[in-house]
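Re: beginner question about structure tokens

> Can someone show what the tokenized structure looks like for a real chain? I only ever see the sequence side.

Sure, here's an example I had lying around. Input first:
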Amino acid sequence: MKIFLTILLVLAGLILFVLFCPFSIQLVYDNEVTLKVGYLFPFFRILPQKPKPEKKEDTKPQESSVASPTKKKAKTAKKKNPVWEFTKKQGLEGIIELLKQITGIVMKLLDTVRKHLVISRLRLDLLVVGEDPADTAMKYGYACAAIYPLLSLLDRHVRIRKHEEYIDAGFEADTTKVHFIMKVHIMPIFVVAAALGALFKGIGILQKLKQ
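And the corresponding structure tokens:
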């Protein structure tokens, strides 16, 4: 009995450890987009993808398979569409109400994730260069007017631990340069809890469709 309880406690501790270890996303732009995803210790690169090795063509002749009549009938047999059946029974008002419920579930899920999302680092280095000094000044003003309110909006809705923005007008430079880094963290426990809540509500909607 003690061994069983010990195993349960160890498993519970491992599950808690896994759920409370942050899931990280790192996005870097420097002439190309680099996206990395990390959990626990290693980071895995998502973008840019590594080129896949070319597969050798199979020269063996493929055997022609003839489907049996019973299989053909099974494929051609149409299954009932629960959404269409629900539409016929409930009408347009029922579909609209259903869409409202689905939208509410998705919005609540996103809102829960957003509340626990943490941007640990946000850095933007932008050197604006136009065709001439007047064009450079105009593009610089446009960049400031567009980027600073966007960053302020992001700061109001997401917790940012550290952010740095450097926007300059390159009157003596040749080309526009952009360097962007963003690191995002979230605890899996919050995502799992939000997903389970959305799943239970989604099951209720599926039951309504089957009625």
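Each token stands for a local structural state, so reading them left to right follows the chain. The helical segments are 2-19, 69-76, 82-115, 133-157, 188-210.
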